Amino acid sequence: MISLPFALLVTATLGSILAGLSCSIAGVFVVRLNIASIGFCMSHAAFAGAAFGLLIEVDPLLTAMLFASVTALLLAPVANRAKLNTDVVIGIMFSLMIALAFVFLNLSPGEAASGAALRILWGSIFAVSEYDVLYLALLCAMMVSFVTLFYKEIFALMFNQKLAKAAGVNTYVFMLIVVFLTGLAVSFSLKLIGGLLVYALIINPTSTAYQFFWDFRKIMVFSPVIGVASCIAGFIFSLETDFPIGASIVIVSAILLAISIAISPKRRTAKIAAQAA
Amino acid sequence: MYTTRNDLMSGSKGPKAVVLLDKVSTVYEGERFPAIRDVSLCINAGDFVCVIGPNGSGKTTLLETVNGILRNTSGNVRVFGLDVTESGHSVRTRTGYVIQNFEIDPLSPFLCKNVVMSGRVGKIGLLRFPSERDWAIVDESMRLVGMDSSADRPIGKLSGGEFQKILLARAIAQEPEMFLLDEPFANLDLKSRADVDRLISDLNRKGATTVMVSHDIDSIPFSCSHIIVMNRGRVAAFGPRDELLQNGVISSLMKVRGSAV
Ligand SMILES: Nc1ncnc2c1ncn2[C@@H]1O[C@H](COP(=O)(O)OP(=O)(O)OP(=O)(O)O)[C@@H](O)[C@H]1O
Ligand SMILES: [Mg+2]
Fold first, then answer.
1. I need a surface site. Which of A149, A214, A230, B55 has the fewest CB within 10 A?
2. Which of A24-33, A240-249, B70-79 has the highest mean pLDDT?
3. Ligand 1 atom at shortest distance from the alpha carbon of B53
4. What residue in A sits closest to B88 (Cα-Cα)?
């Protein structure tokens, strides 16, 4: 058990809660819209961006956002095309971004830079400033109001993009907003969770909620609840074990997902039906 | 009233023209040849038009060009007097679309009543929430298709036919001025087919212009007023139902079907 100064404890706790909230809201979009490859690419682009920021000595958060947004803008138009070969996109973008990140990190001078680089890779509570928490809070406010105000449009979009468009929803604009918010959630959570793992925090809570609920509204509520709970539990776990915080959070959320798949009422009924048949 | 092709060419549109296509072609992205080409036709308010033709002849493409889901590559599409390229949103808000049967993940977390409500999103408008009246319309639409007892069932647990009825209820809940129905009889048993046939005809009689796709000439509803025959992306024939049913184009199409089986 490591003891932290009170201020750092508060920042880290708030940061964990807010990162969990924003990532798991983004997760609902990412999982349902089948844009997992885009989320995946964005998290690695953000990682490469942060490394680039270290290299040119500007705030890594800024360059992470920049890289994630550019990736989002490049990929958003292809998000709803059936023809998009996701394997190819993942293959190219993922390896390119990781390669870029390593090049940037390698070029960055000095001890301090490599320490910072490691933090971006693994995530660290020491990397999170009050400003990061503030940005995360603003982002969470944006996401919650987006979901509340445009719930019916989001529902239509999540059910079927073509039918949503046919009913008069501006699907193009909504897709852009969704992809953009996801990019921001990834970038803002990067310092805390780490570039390699932030993606798991997006996918796991929503996938966990999927095991239990048939009603989209409940997914929209419980995915963030599970995300925040994983983050708090992971944070405590990391204090206890001295594991990196990102790793702890992802381990907790992965365990939750595994348990939920094992006990899922959805799957259980399916199994009984299959046995009966 | 039926407007002839000549009326259309001379530019005189009837006052009640709901859909007006002028030499419209639509090319899918990345394709070289148009899926529909040089389609010109006019559908008037209250018409009940059936689009028939073999697989791949462009029926779905035609529907999606009319409501602007696909952007036409050349020609001119006017619906409700509006240019679809410019005013696609208002056209789509006033048009109910039943998509051709598609697969849905059995675990997907959507309840039937909410899916039906999602037909009304454009109609309700941005930054507004469904009112009690909206929910009453949703209930009524589900009752019309005989699915009122399934309101709280997850959509993924429905059978193919039940799902098809929910999609129809979704379009009805939109209270559109025009229906575009892509194979609404798919997966339906004989009784449901008759029920849905009657329902669609009723809605048409109450004033909704209806364009219905079917690849099966036997399932053309009795109340259908006009028939469009599509073949290889072109309109092979278009005219009043009775005239077309005696036409050689359809019988040749049926012969192809007969020999293929
Ligand atoms: N997304 C697409 N990309 C490229 N080509 C397409 C696409 N969708 C359809 N096509 C092509 O356009 C042509 C017309 O297709 P369309 O779906 O309109 O046919 P259809 O008459 O509705 O057929 P069916 O009876 O099978 O539903 C076909 O040759 C098809 O291969
Ligand atoms: Mg079709």
1. B55
2. B70-79
3. 21
4. A168
Tell me the pLDDT tens digit for each residue of A97-155. 889 988 888 887 776 666 777 777 788 888 888 999 999 999 999 999 999 999 999 99
Q: Is B29 on the interface with A (CB under 8 A)?
A: yes
Say yes or no: CB of residue B57 within 6 Å of ligand 1.
yes
pLDDT above 60 (res B14): no
Contact A70, A45 (CB under 8 A): yes
- Lookup: tokens for B155: 């959509």
Locate A136 and state its tokens. Answer: 């995360």
Contacts of A14 (CB under 8 A, 6+ apart): A133, A136, A137
Task: Find residue B24's DSSP bridge partners.
Answer: B39
Distances (CA, A) of A187 to A22, A83, A269: 11, 28, 39
Mention every residue, 6+ apart, whose C-beta is less than 8 A from residue B204: B46, B48, B179, B210, B223
Which residue of A159, A166, A167 is in closest CB contact with B110? Answer: A159
Measure B247 CA to nearest chain A CA, in Å.
34
| Residues of chain A contacting B97 with CB distance shorter than 8 Å | 163, 166-167
Contact A164 B121 (CB under 8 A): yes
Q: What is the number of other CB atoms lying within 10 angstroms of the CB of residue A109? A: 10
A49/A62 Cα distance (integer angstroms):
8
* pLDDT at site B9: 40
Full set of structural domains in chain A with CATH: 6-270 (1.10.3470.10)
* Atom 6 (ligand 1) nearest CA: B28
Give the pLDDT score at A88.
73
What is the C-alpha separation between A221 and B44, in angstroms, rounded?
Answer: 46
* Confidence (pTM): 0.91
Mind giving me the DSSP string for A57-80?
TS-HHHHHHHHHHHHHHHHHHHHT
Q: Does A215 touch chain B (CB under 8 A)?
A: yes
Question: Is B69 in Cβ contact with A169 (below 8 Å)?
Answer: no
Residue B167: list chain A partners with CB under 8 A: 163
* Contact residues, chain A, for B117 at CB < 8 Å: 152
Q: Using CB atoms and an 8 Å cut-off, which of residues 4-63 of chain A contact chain B?
A: 32
Pull the structure tokens for residue A259.
């348990």
Q: What is d(CA A72, CA A5) in angstroms, rounded to the nearest whole number?
A: 38
Q: Do B118 and A168 touch (CB under 8 A)?
A: no
Query: Whose alpha carbon is nearest atom 7 of ligand 1?
Result: B28
> Cα–Cα–Cα angle for A190, A194, A200, nearest 5°?
95
Domains defined along chain B, listed by start: 1-94+176-261 (3.40.50.300), 102-175 (no CATH)
Tokens representing B188?
């339906």
